[in-house]
Amino acid sequence: MHTSVVVVVLETTEVYIVISLSTRRDTQVVYVDPTTGALRYLGKHGEDVFDSEAAALNYITDGSRVLSKSTTYAKALLGYAVLGSSALLLVATQLSASVPNLPGGGCIYTVAESQWIKIQLQNPQPQGTGEQKNIRDLADLDIDGKHFFCETRDVTRPFPSPMTLREPDEEFVWNECLSKPFKDIGLPGHCVILLQGFAECRNFGGAGQQGGLVALIARRSRLHPGTRYLARGLNACSGTGNEVECEQLVWVPRKGGQRVPFSSYIWRRGTIPIWWGAEIKNAVSVEAEIYVANDPYNGSLQYYQRLGRRYGNKSSEANVSRQKKSGRVPVICVNLLRYGEGKTESVLVDHFKESIRYMNSTGKLGSTWIQLINYDWHATVKLKGQQQTVEGLWRHLKAPTMVIGFSEGNYYDVRQQLSECKGSVICNDDVNGGFCMESIQNGVIRFNCADSLDRTNAASYFGALQVFVEQCSRLNISLDIDAMFGLSSRYSEYDGRNTRSLPPGWEERFDSVTGKSFYIDHNTRTTTWEHPCQEAPQKPWKRFDMAFDQFKGSTMLAPVNHLAELFLLAGDIHATLYTGSKAMHSEILNIFKEETGKFSKFSAVQNVRITVQRRYQNFVNDSSRQKQLEMFLGLRLYKHLPSIPMFPLKVLSRPSGCMLKPVPSITPMTDGGSSLLSFKRKDLIWVCQQGADYVELFIYLGEPCHVCQLLLTVSHGAEDSSYPATVDVRVGSSIDSLKLVVEGACIPQCLNGTNLLIPVTGRIDPEDLTVTGKSARPNVQESSYLPLLYDFEELEGELNFLNRVVALSFHPSAVSITPITLGEIEVLGVSLPWADMLTNSEHASEFMEFLNKKSSIVHCDLGSKSFGNSSMPGNDSHGIDGSYTKSSSSVQTGGSENLLDYLTGDFDMSEPHITENTFGNGEQTNFLDDGFDVNPFAPALEVPVPKVNKQVEECGSTQLYLKFFESLSGYNKGKGLDFEQMMKLEIKRLRLGLSAAERDQALLSIGVISATLDPNRSVDYSYLLKLSSLADNLALLGHTVLEDRVNASIGLEKGSEHAIDFWNISENDESCYGGACEVHALSSSQALATRENQSVFVECFRCERTVCKACCAGKGAFLLLNTYRELKIYGGSQSGGYSALADSFVCKSCCSEIIKRALYVDYVRVLHSLRRKDRSEKAALSAVNQVCQLEYRKASDLSQSIQFGQRQLKQILDGEESLAEFPYANFLQMVETANDSEPLLSLLAPFGTGEYKSYWKAPQDNTSVEFSIVLGGLSDVAGVAIIVSSCGYSTSDCPIVEIWASNKIHREDRTFIGKWDVQDIISSSPQLCGPEKSSRLSEEPRHIKFHFPNPIRCRIISIKMTLPHNGSRSTKFSEEFNLLSLDDSSVYESKPTNPQNSFIHAKRIVVFGSSLRKEVGPDTSGGIMRMKSYLDRSPPLGRFRIPVEAERLRDNDLVLEQYPLANSPGIAGFRLDFFNVIRPRVTHSPSSSELDMRKFSLTRMEDRFVNPAILYIQVTVVKESGKLVVEEYRLPEVKANTPLYFDFPDLQQDARCVIFRLLGDVTAFVDDISELENLNLRNLPLASGLSLSNKIKLYYYADTYEMGKIGSLSAV
Ligand SMILES: [Zn+2]
Ligand SMILES: [Zn+2]
């Protein structure tokens, strides 16, 4: 069976991906969320797992009752990406089996045809046209014929790979980024592992009967993925342009059950591994200009180290016999460039030579040993002709090829056979049998010309050809013509005749003594026992010594030409990938063909044509192809697709979310309003009751989450005012804990079907609101204030990941006369990975470890909160150690006291002494030194957290903050703080974990107004623009460097942190170290004498003076100064490019003040973002703790306990389904819980979570509790089971249980099911009494089942438990016993039946039955039709534009004044066309936690969802009378240029002037990238797209017939 992928697009535009893998028997269905594009897969049989494709398709189309718009049939899934308002799915529609059967099985398929399926999403997130153009470009990328994959074997490594398919070598995986969405939903193998390059094989015959197969596999490295002229030489990832690993695999196919002998030879090709580039001046010029970087060998070392690691033969065992043990890994570079006088390429040759000399001199290559062979291919061909060129190459290659050898071995289908294997054995789970290796290639030959194109391909062919003949001979496939004759004569031997032919001059005789033949060579007068024609092929590598003609004459040419054919094809593929055209100069590969001569003339013409074609192609297309490739690989996305979130939000209101109360409608609707939550009812217009003051909706979310956005689909009839005008949002974890989070959010009138996004913040503390300036801002006239540096007054909303109920109150518009209409409603948010955490035994322990780590940090609750951990950038920057000088490990001792202050964030300035222990990381740094340049500001590995902690406990962070403030302001008495001091104060504040509101409160308490300490206000506007623009640039540079570092580490020893350490910033005052420091940018302090350590000095990149740590600006300064242009992935710009590996230092005196300040700004932004992350992680932690207590769990026990729990549940369910499990089910109302109890939600938590013995209990004085449980979906409930707590029941605490079922929250509508007295049950089941025997865990836990008489279809189950005693009796009892217990308490405490101890308790509540698989609401189409009939009746009024006499823009175009003509009609409202701006994802340098987030994160909540940017428009109507009318509107997010109509509450007569003012988080937006071609992305700190120019029109309402009367009026 082949893999089959079917992509079904339904009429509703919903998309399903149906995948049936060749390696599995079942079919998986992945649903694409129509709003966010997130993939959904739960792995539930009958829902998204099916036995066959047909069953899956039948389910999706509901037995083809649901129409599908389109269906695409494909053969492999290649990738998927969500790109804002659209998503792209890449599938292979045609494959060719290019290597059908590898030894040991497995087929390599080449993608012959592919298709990008574009999925339109309804997410209205603002996205610019530039971004959309880039998405279109990505979808244009043609991958056909140039990519291959294998579904069952790892082919990213030399054959045979010891690794499985799941662990490919990242260097060669091209769809790693695109396949991630499938990995994230738990389908890691559903996307193939896509390689770029060439794979093809040929059958060939040898002498005699045995034939062989040869495959040529060429994998292109993705580390320097560019096109010609943009990707040459090395880049920042230490990859070279057009780098390809080639493999020549020869084997003898056998039928099953036998061994398959094979051999494999590997070589590399790529451009010269130094830092160089070329630039085409124009489309027709012949020579491109070559330049070499200032520091050309940067990254060369890493390049060779990578080769050494990959080709070093680790299993020396197998090679002992064949290779002389040297421990060396030879890397032989064969350089084919021109090096004659005056040739442009010769400069490269010189550098190449020099680089290798340098490499060998560094002593850092380990066992890798590099040798360079220069062979000027073109010159030799010209001088000596093709044949002699080939001969010459062979002479050069002979020795290295023989030393390096190739791998050979046998595949055995049965593993037992391997036990006899003498060499090393390679086995993995992907193959049945195993490989026994007789020898393994050690080292590699690397070919290069300028481009790794034509010469490279030709030379590597002639090199590989020699190996090919040798490989064949080792496999007993002789390609010897002589041997062919020999063999034929051997067969004749069977006839008893000795007619075997001998070479001329030879004679065969018999030895009369032994009877054996011997041979006389009369030419040389020698004799031998061996037949001359048999001996010849056994001499290894003999063809290296042959002249061309000799080779040709003695070798079977058919296989040779088969091989040439493969090389020609591969050459064309690589040329096409790199240059967009076929290879040139390839006629030499046909040199063994008889008719070569005929073609050479033709070839010459062709070469010229290709040259011209290439030049043109490269000039015109290179940069756009480069961009396509980068996006395909997921690189530089913050630049190409700046607004796209890494982790899109989830829609949580979809079924199984539901309405908890019926939504009123004008005509009775059976579904109670749930169609409002369904995407399938996109066209719905819900008409509410006539005359309603407001409409209230209670939405139960499918999963608990932090609510981030409300998405409304505007829906109305002919009159657009029937859609509500405002909405209030309340959220809560249950219906009785709702909190108002949005009040009166304005809903403008707009076209039917418009999607409005209303950002939602968590509840903001009213006290915070009053204290920060921000709350007042919309009313304040300080419109010129722009917090461009960072949000100084950030208001922090409460984060809660357990929100479950969203209540919406819609209010009608004032002018509306028709009933309120509603359309589809969606709630978007971030949910925690509950399923992985609670029920996935593989991942759960991983999460638990992570949580425990987090919780221990929270428990310390140090002043600096989580900043105490080592991922803090503060530590990165300050954790200096002395070891930047390579040999100085012995010299290092701590450092100086001042440094320690920055390192620890030490708060106590009077106590500067910390032992040098705290940063004794010199050794570690030396260890890292291995690969990278040593970083003198490397992150500290150990941070003395407890010390800080103690201090905070003693003083409180507020006190410490104020103390620090006083110490700063003390320096310049009476005067305000300067910019740097303000930033230091903010750094201190963030380190101490104070929110802006807490800061303001603290300052207020000492009579300081915080605005006076706002850095945004401390500099003038133009300076502010420049400064924030610099900081924005640094943010982008930082992400570039990070990305490059991550990629640069591929294939190298891990262990180097990718941490970005841009800032050399201290919050305390510092002073020059003196000593060797030649810069003295800061005044020296008295402590000078103690600073003797030389190792904290570096050299300034600019002035080349020695500079001390304190006088050095951060590395970010180097970036800003030197690459104000952007860092390109291809490294090279004319001036030489820049490598992320080479961070240099700039001293503070060479670096202007504004750059130093920009570093501060960036640093504070990073701290800000860390604070947000920290807050969301804490909220996540607290949410988890409300489901199960973390403290008791040991991660290692967890997976076992989860598996055990799942078995227990299965026992209890007895074939039924569990319907009320968290996170799908939840309590509708809070239930009072005892203090020492497990959390309430633990009652619904999956089995196996929480401590085994623990259970839930009600407070002692509660004699009755009621649980209302909202089930995971509409279900047929068969009964309820209560798992008995470990304490067991006694006569006094076994409750009376009553159960009801219902669908909505109205109590009166519920159905009574029954009443059970547990007392009766336990009398017949005594095992339920008393504490559990702790000795063994039973498979079936103690439980009581309450079976319903009949299954009942419902959504909510209510369970009431009442203790047997009535209230008065129990009180009396307890009083008595309290009195008694005073006398002798021990007696009563020991008795479990003591009524004093009775309380209601349970371990778990299980609801069982069967859930209704599908969203099968009652058929509502009739009702919807009837509802529509209520609309379209009132003839709509038209909106007419009010002419404006004059208008004026001011305050950065954020304020617009319009002066209507005199005698204008009254103003009814205004139209606003929405802004063409985006919110960029990248706003600051990456902190190391950003890396963690990519790998593993609990919340995956991006900054901009923690604190969403919200815009307001304030309208002031100035009346003739001078009276002012001020209105304010919170703006929803819509697509750019969507017209929004805002009606004033009253008609505004006699307006002299109307002032519009854009307020809110205007600084969070930037311009669309299409507007900024050739500029840096965030060139303008304030988006020009936010300009109110031409965005606003005033209107009034009039009957449309008035149109005729006043000709000058136009509709708006
Ligand atoms: Zn200094
Ligand atoms: Zn300097």
TrEMBL record:
Residues 138-514 form the SAC domain. Signal peptide: none annotated. This is Phosphoinositide phosphatase SAC9. GO terms for molecular function: phosphatase activity. The lineage of its organism: Eukaryota, Viridiplantae, Streptophyta, Embryophyta, Tracheophyta. Residues 869-893 are annotated as: Disordered. It comes from the Eukaryota. Pfam families: SAC9_C, SAC9_C8D, SAC9_GBDL_1st, SAC9_GBDL_2nd, Syja_N, WW. Residues 884-893 have a biased composition (Polar residues). Residues 500-534 form the WW domain. InterPro entries: SAC9_C, SAC9_C8D, SAC9_GBDL_1st, SAC9_GBDL_2nd, SAC_dom, WW_dom, WW_dom_sf.
